Amino acid sequence: MYEIRFHGRGGQGAVTAANALAVAAAMEGMYVQAFPVFGVERRGAPVAAFVRIDEKEIDIRSQIYNPDIVVVLDMTLLGAVNVTAGLKKGGILIFNTKKKPGEFSYPDFKVATVDATEIAVRNGLGTQTNPIVNTAILGAYARAVGNVKLESIIEAVKQESPVKKDENAKAVKDAFENTVKGW
Amino acid sequence: MAMKMVLRGNMATAYAAKLARVEVIPAYPITPSTLFPEKISEFVANGELKCQFIKCESEHSAMSACIGASATGARVATATSSQGLALMHEVVFIAAGLRLPIVMAIGNRALSAPINIWCDHQDTIAERDSGWLQFYAEKNQETLDLMLMAFKICEDHRVLLPGMVGMDAFVLTHTMECVDIPEQEEVDRFLPPYKPVYKLDVNNPMTFGAFSSPDNYMEFRYAVHMAMESAVKVIDEVFEEFEKKFGRNYQRVVPFMVEDAEVILVTIGSMTGTAREAVRLLRSKGKKVGLLKITTLRPFPKDLLKKYLKDAKVVVVLERNISLGFGGAVYPEIAAVFANAARRPKIYDFIIGLGGRDIVVEDIVKVYEIAMDALKAKKAEMVEWIGVRKDEIEVIK
Asked: How far apart are CA B30 and CA A42, in angstroms?
């Protein structure tokens, strides 16, 4: 079973990203769960969302405390939230940043980076100050993790996006091609 | 071909209402059930569901509208949670007394005060004695299936009572999972239109809910109680037919690894999955543990509980509710099953996960260990709260 945690800020679409990833994995015949940190969401406040993906039916219902993968949509969270909390040794960290993996020091984890903000803005998804990066970051997920195919993610993103389906699909593809793996 | 979708529990119950061709849906939104009326209004606006969707000014009004609509012979559904169900309380009893097979999805949520929107079974437990059938789902597929089956069971002329389908707040209502959506034609064959025995009809006027004197009130109450007893057989029949048609097995009580179990955990709702993981873990260490999930709390499945629990050394009841001043609400009912038995297991009660506190595998393992220690110490009774920071509470004696 893969357990994934998304970190974002209210309004950035971390919950939608988690849902789209679950839909993509389900398209490949996997069993999935996707859920937010249950509570009252406020715009700009730190939020987290979870995904479980398994080949067999998923029994466990608790929140995820020891994820295999952590996805960070907004790097300003690093000062506010311990994004690596409980991340398994050897686990994957995906950052939305202009920096390269070598510029981070996480000896216990594998780091992958993508400039999802630039890709989102270039594809007309939000603005420089308020980019909608949740679809681009899934392209990075497909590249860095590889347990869900790019095609499935593109299909799921199109399905889950209320508007700009093609732009979102393009952002996923661009992010996939521009993700840098530090391992 | 059934369609597979990734859905939240609330959405799954909305799909069930659509597939059941519900004719009237009066609703008032409340967290965490709001997605139900949202999705229904979308279905109605899109023309996907031909249904009278009534936006009410309160839950009391919503249930009142359900009662009026159901009395005309329409198939009726709604959804609510927590304070919404509490506000309905007065009319919830009336729906049962009038023998109206309304089906209601409940996002099981804690009651105030303090205000809390998270998972807890207190809201439906508080309506336990209302004359409504009570089903509890473990996962989103079950929310859809139980909702569909609830119509068939409740509308059966041997039952004619309303039913509620409980799903855990957020853990099911807001969690996306794979759900098989059956074909409309298959559902139509399984669930034909509702045929009332009596209905409000201008051409054949009659009174519903008339005044009842001490001379006949007891007979009305007895009739409802007998309908609950009849529901046991109807539920088993409908579960069997559902399995034949849709391939998914349902039982009023679902056993897991109970055959040789010395300790049997009893659960309701979504905590069952986590408990199943804990049972697997304990079994891998050679512990003889089993699990029973209660799907139907009303009618109470005393026959099956007796069957599965009678040879256990310890029965551990895990409850997301508290009857303040006593203990969990299900514990005394299970104890009553064995009250007059010559040989009976020790029965211990654990209050867990109130107000959405997360239940993890380690909690269930801890419950097992506490129960085993109590057995060794030959404790006669026990109501234990799991994970409560008792040192933070100032008790004035």
From this structure: 18
Whole-angstrom distance, CA of residue A117 vs CA of residue A98 = 9
Q: What is the pLDDT of residues A51-93, one digit of tens each?
A: 999 999 999 999 999 999 999 999 999 999 999 999 999 999 9
Q: Do A33 and B4 touch (CB under 8 A)?
A: no
Q: Which residues of B touch A58 (CB under 8 A)?
A: 273
Cβ–Cβ contact A36 with B under 8 A: yes
Domain range holding A101? 2-181
Give pLDDT, residue A68. 98
**Is residue B333's pLDDT more than 70?**
yes
Strand, helix or coil for residue B259: coil
What the block records as the tokens of A15 is: 């919950």
Strands A2-9 and A69-72: parallel
* Residue from the list A22, A40, A60 with its beta carbon closest to the beta carbon of B176: A22
- Return d(Cα B309, Cα B129) in angstroms, integer: 24
- Here the tokens at position A119 are 């890709």
Closest CA to A5 of A132, A101, A145, A128: A145
Cβ-count burial B78-97 (b if 16+ within 10 Å, e if not):
bbbbbbbbbbbeebbebbbb
List all residues 6 or more positions away from A173 whose beta carbon is below 8 Å from its beta carbon: A139, A150, A154
Cα distance between residue B112 and residue A36, in whole Å: 23
All domains in chain B, ordered by first residue:
3-246 (3.40.50.970), 253-391 (3.40.50.920)
In contact, B55 and B19? CB cutoff 8 Å:
no
What does the alpha-carbon distance between residue A114 and residue A178 come to, in Å, rounded to a whole number?
6
Closest CA to B297 of B333, B243, B340, B264: B333
Give the residue ranges of DSSP H helices in chain A: 14-27, 116-122, 136-144, 150-160, 165-178
Domains contained in chain A, number: 1
What pLDDT digit, counting tens, does each position of B113-147 carry? 999 999 999 999 999 999 999 999 999 999 999 99
In chain B, which residues have their Cβ closer than 8 Å to the Cβ of A59?
273-274, 276-277
Q: What's the CATH code of the domain at A96?
A: 3.40.920.10
